[in-house]
Structure formats: structure tokens, C-alpha cells
Write a structure and sequence with these properties.
alpha/beta, Ubiquitin-like (UB roll), 4-stranded mixed beta sheet, 3-stranded mixed beta sheet
């Protein structure tokens, strides 16, 4: 280590603190920081692994008491100050009136250690007559009084605290502190500082209250250029528009900072782009290399596109309202075409709109690509759940705001639906746009939300409900099929009148 070589962990730190007791802790740490900075940046370190998990204290069970099992007469808890006795007892299976078991005793000690409130738990077993008394002697951890970071400039204290996952008031867990050290180093690597060193100055001893991390930051690395290799389906310029790891608009005068987490996201983004166009076997790898002084990064994306899948057959299932031929006429993806996920989504929405225009407001359409044994071919099945057909019941309008006396007729005149009409989700969307275009209303003025129309099916909808509700059909044929529809009420909630107009009141 270079930047932190002048600091010899907790031992020397505590020696300094004991020898120069009249100097404040912050002044000592500031001096350490200056000494560390004088040594320059550290060499690259291999990936760190989490510290070893703390071992549970070993239990030496008592010698076999008598020739038969002993009954537990009492369970005693000692040494606890902050953690209540009842909280501890709730974790134990060793309880009065149960048979004593050394194995269960071991399990109980482990359960108490997993509470992360104790640095040690010692069980004691004492024979008394025909039974035993079990005592759990607990040693509570100290509480963290503060978490400090020294030397960080690229990442804020708040971000480091969140990443460390330790905070003021938590029990002081040495394992958690060492793990926090590695988390902070990992965060710096993801943000483009792979050679950053983090040292625990305080907090690696059970007697400590404060935790202090000394950070020797690596230099900022900038992206010099980005290349693509193996792409045939689309140009490198097109691929570059989908990633965030690139030199920047003002290169070479200004370049973007390199960050490994963004690079990983870019790789996933490119993979998703290819699979959207049917390259399901596409693999995207990435290579990075640095300039001599490690200040610049050269990025290369290596792409193995693989075959582009075609659609062998298209099918629909679950449709009763419409024939398969009627549904096929709406689909953009057809047999022998290249697969395209965006067009598949468009086809799903087209089918849902068709059903929604005829009152099937809960219709579900699921696209299911089926991979075949034949390489590069799939079957595409649209699974349809039609649900009930709904007609408009009541239309409820709630007008609030400064001009809440605005007549409901002003709202109703901008709706394309009336009670008794088959609900058409397309007309509902058009009505919402018409209400918004009027400039008279908003749903949530503070948030800039436009008016919305909600459909609430009646819980007691049943066959013949439209007929029993006495709804008008506005010239539509009231045949049996028409009457055997459910009822859905329209709600326009929290409609705020935004302007005053004499003609609309």
C-alpha cells in the first residue's frame, strides 16, 4: 500500500491517541491524510473477497449429568444492558420444564449471535438436584457513535454511508466494518476509480465507538474512444447511440468519465437491442485497455450476432368474439417474417384495442414466442382471455377547485359515451384528450396531471344487469346478446376547474 502505508491500522492509531491525548482526533486523522497523500496513488489491487465470517463461540457441553436426561429448572440471562431479557428469551429453545440438550444449547448460542447485538455469548450449566439451571452470559457490542470518511472527493459522504450499510446507532460489528471497507472499494471501482484504497483508521476494535475510513482516491479516467467489432446488422454509429460509455459530444476537449457499472449496463443494453430484432443468441463482450498513465480508457465491444430468427407460423388462441381471420388482419407480424419485439408489442396492443372498443375492458392478450427444433425459427402464439363485455352505467363527475360550480354538463358534453353505450376504451382516451384540450380542467394541478376517466365494474354485475338497470341503448339494438352485458360505471375523480368562464357555469 502507498497512500495508507503511513498508517499502521488500529494499533498505531491508538498509540498516537494515547501518547498525544491533548491533540484532537480530527487533527490526528488530518495529519494521517496528509502523510498518505504524499506517497501518491496505489498500484492496482486484485479483486477483493469478503472478509471471513465471524466464528460462533465454541461450547464445551457439560459432562453427562446422571444416567438420564435432566429437566431445565430455570434459564438465567446476565450481562445484558440494552437488549431486554424477554427479547433474548424469545430467541431460545432452551426453556424451563424442557429436557436439557447440549445440541440445543449450541443452537441457541448461534441464534443469539445472529442477532448481531453481542460480541460473545457464554453458556453455563449448573446441576441442581434432579435438574439443571442454564445461564446465558452475554457481552453486548458497543454502539457506533459516528461514521467518518476522510479523503473522499469524487463520492459524497451520503453515498458512501449508504454503500457501507453501517450507521450511527448500530451495534459495532467488526465483520460488518471490514465488509463496509470492501463495499466502499467496490463502489469506487464501479465509478471508474479501480486503484482506490480504503483503510479502517478507527472501528476495528471492540473498544471503538467511532468508525473512520481513510480513502486514497485513484485518478479520474476518461473515455478516449469506443469501437464495435462483429456488428453486421447495424452500424457502429447506430449502436453508439444506445450506450452511455462514449467520449462525449465535445471530444477531444471534453471527455466523459469511465465507470465500470455504466459499461456493464451498456453491454446489457446492446444485448437487448439485438434480441429485440430476433437475434436471440447474440452475445456482447467488452474489452478495456488503458493509456500508459492510466488516465484514458479505450473500450471495444465485441459482438457475436448469431442468426436472426424468423416466424414460421402465427396463431391465436382463446378468441370467441372474433374469428381468427379477423384478428390476423390486424397483425403486422406474419408468417416468414423476421421477428421484431416492437412489432409484436404493437400487435398485442392492436388486439387489446379491438376488444376494448367492444366493451371487453378486461381483455388480456399475451404474446408467446415458441422456439422450435428447427434452428432460427419460432412460432408466435397470441393467447387471448376475453372476459366480460361491459356497457356504461352511471357517469360520475366530481368538480373541485376555485370554480367548482362549473356545470357537470360542461364535462359530459366532451364525452363520447352515454349510459347504456358499449364501453369503448378508444372513445374514453379521446374524451380524456378533449377534456385536457379544453383548458378548463386538470386532475392534479400541483403535479400537472391531465383529467382521466376510470372504469369501475359493478360488483353485482350479472346477466341481464343492463336490462334491470333500465339503461337506454341510444338506437342500438337491444337484443338478448346486447342485454346480457355487465355494467361499468365511469368516474372522473378530482376534476379541478382551472379557469372561470361565464358561458361554462
Amino acid at each position: 500500500m502507498s497512500g495508507t502505508a503511513a498508517v499502521t491500522k488500529a494499533g498505531s492509531t491508538k498509540a498516537m491517541r494515547g501518547r498525544f491525548f491533548y491533540i484532537s482526533r480530527r487533527r490526528i486523522l488530518f495529519t494521517v491524510l496528509l502523510l498518505g497523500s504524499a506517497y501518491g496513488s496505489a498500484e492496482a489491487q486484485p479483486p477483493v473477497s469478503p472478509p471471513p465470517a465471524p466464528a460462533f463461540p465454541a461450547i464445551n457441553p457439560p459432562e453427562e449429568i446422571g444416567s438420564s436426561q435432566k429437566v431445565i429448572l430455570d434459564v438465567i440471562i446476565t450481562g445484558n444492558q440494552r437488549v431486554t431479557k424477554n427479547t433474548i428469551l424469545a430467541k431460545l429453545q432452551t426453556r424451563p420444564d424442557r429436557n436439557f440438550s447440549p445440541d440445543q444449547l449450541q443452537a441457541d448460542v448461534q441464534a443469539l449471535m445472529l442477532m448481531k447485538e453481542f460480541r460473545n455469548v457464554r453458556p453455563l450449566v449448573a446441576e441442581q438436584g434432579e435438574g439443571v439451571i442454564v445461564t446465558f452470559e452475554v457481552m453486548e457490542k458497543a454502539r457506533i457513535t459516528a461514521v467518518n470518511f476522510i479523503g473522499n472527493r469524487a463520492i459524497t459522504n451520503r453515498a458512501l454511508t449508504k454503500e457501507a450499510e453501517i450507521k450511527e446507532g448500530d451495534p459495532l460489528d467488526l465483520y460488518a466494518v471490514r465488509l463496509a471497507e470492501r463495499r466502499i472499494e467496490s463502489l469506487y471501482k464501479r465509478k471508474g476509480f479501480p486503484r482506490t484504497e480504503v483503510t479502517i483508521v478507527e472501528g476495528d476494535d471492540t473498544a471503538d465507538g467511532e468508525i473512520t475510513f481513510l480513502i486514497n482516491e485513484d485518478q479520474v479516467r476518461e473515455i478516449y474512444n469506443v469501437k464495435f467489432i462483429g456488428n453486421k446488422f447495424v452500424s457502429g454509429a447506430r449502436l453508439a447511440s444506445f450506450i452511455k460509455s462514449k467520449p462525449g459530444l465535445f471530444a477531444p476537449f471534453y471527455r466523459t468519465r469511465y465507470a465500470s457499472d455504466k459499461l456493464a449496463s451498456d453491454r446489457d443494453r446492446l444485448t437487448a437491442y439485438y434480441r429485440n430484432f430476433g437475434f436471440f443468441n447474440a452475445v456482447v463482450d467488452v474489452e478495456t485497455r488503458y493509456s500508459g498513465d492510466h488516465s484514458q480508457v479505450y473500450i471495444t465491444f465485441i459482438i457475436n450476432e448469431g442468426p436472426r430468427y424468423k416466424i414460421r407460423d402465427v396463431a391465436v388462441a382463446g378468441n370467441e368474439k372474433y374469428s381468427s381471420e379477423e384478428l390476423f388482419s390486424l397483425l403486422k407480424l406474419q408468417t416468414n417474417q423476421d421477428f421484431n419485439a416492437s412489432e409484436m408489442t404493437r400487435d398485442v396492443n392492436a388486439l387489446k384495442d379491438l376488444y376494448g372498443s367492444q366493451g371487453y375492458i378486461n381483455a388480456q392478450v399475451q404474446a408467446d414466442p415458441l422456439f422450435l427444433d428447427e434452428p432460427g425459427m419460432i412460432d408466435l402464439v397470441y393467447k387471448i382471455t376475453e372476459g366480460k363485455q361491459y356497457r356504461v352505467g352511471r357517469i360520475n363527475v366530481r368538480i373541485d377547485g376555485d370554480y367548482g360550480v362549473t356545470k357537470q354538463s360542461v364535462v359530459l358534453s366532451r364525452l363520447d359515451l352515454r349510459p347504456g353505450d358499449i364501453i369503448d376504451v378508444r372513445k374514453i382516451r379521446d374524451s380524456e384528450r378533449r377534456l385536457a384540450a379544453s383548458g378548463l380542467f386538470m386532475a392534479e394541478p400541483a403535479m400537472g396531471q391531465m383529467p382521466r376517466i376510470e372504469i369501475k365494474p359493478r360488483e353485482n354485475s350479472f346477466e341481464g344487469s343492463v336490462q334491470s338497470a333500465g339503461l337506454d341503448f341510444r338506437g342500438q339494438s337491444p337484443d338478448n346478446d346486447a342485454r346480457n352485458t355487465a355494467v361499468g360505471d365511469l368516474y372522473i375523480p378530482k376534476l379541478y376547474s382551472s379557469k372561470s368562464n361565464f358561458w361554462f357555469r
